[in-house]
Amino acid sequence: MSDFFSVRVADTGRLPLFAFFVAFIITFVATRVNVRLIRANVSWWFRNVKAGDLHIHHVVFGVVLMLVGGVMGFAVPEDYQGFVVTAAVIFGVGSALVLDEFALILHLSDVYWTEKGRASVDAVFVAIAVTGLLLLGVRPVGFEGLRPDQDGSPPLPGAVYVASLIVNLALAVITVFKGKIWTGLAGLFLPLLLVIGAIRVARPGSPWARWQYAPGSRKARSAAWHEERFRRPLIRVKIWIQEFIAGRHDLIPPELLHRRPSTRRRVTRDRPARRTPFNPARRRTTGRERALRSAVRGRSPRRGTRTRKPRPQDDDD
């Protein structure tokens, strides 16, 4: 294990990237454990940070730490390896705090425990996957052509390199427009996935499907069938993994669950009481209407008296 670390990480100059990777994962796991304990009202050392009535999200601390780590990484010379690794650790901690609330930045509202909050977990998974591949030495499409051979000559001619780079980027854009985000990101490291993602049918609701597939067409039906048959099981597995790591995002927060609705309506000068809408069936009747009703029922207009009914006449009269 030590030989693998020294050969693949230390000797290749990826020690700061390794420090960033480890700090990012540890901070994300610790943050999720902390917020889940706070949500469950468990006694814990850490609590929500508030300044009066203002709740300060941990994305604020993440931005500050990213700024400190980034400036420190640029300011310290590369000869001071310890300071460079420290800057990478600080930057990794700040990045984890920021991406953990990526959905808040995206929607500009507190959607941490809602369905939209799962975008934060997706962003963290993407960051971990890309950093892990870079740590293993896998380079994105196009960077392989920039590495010179042993004799110092470029591995690919300039025209071939530019053409392959344009083709791969075009396939990546098509794959992303077809709604296959993970395939497009993984295809930057494995170009074969870009070819498969660009050829296969797009996902329903993706920009490519809206532009190219007419409603009710064969491709639209095929896209819906593939989504229901293959994509839905994978999405359920991904949601299960997300909920296992980060907690459920569709539960009611405890501060809303224990809030009791007020039974009495508060009337103030700024907010007058709401009047009930006009109901014709409940309006007050006039005296003329009461007299007509009494006459129909056999009563006199005056209360308590009855009108005489006409006596039936004999047939002989």
Automatic annotation (TrEMBL):
The keyword Membrane applies. Coiled coil: none annotated. This is Integral membrane protein. The chain crosses the membrane at residues 15-35, 56-76, 82-107, 119-138, 158-177, 184-202. Residues 262-274, 299-310 have a biased composition (Basic residues). Keywords: Membrane, Transmembrane, Transmembrane helix. Residues 262-317 are annotated as: Disordered.
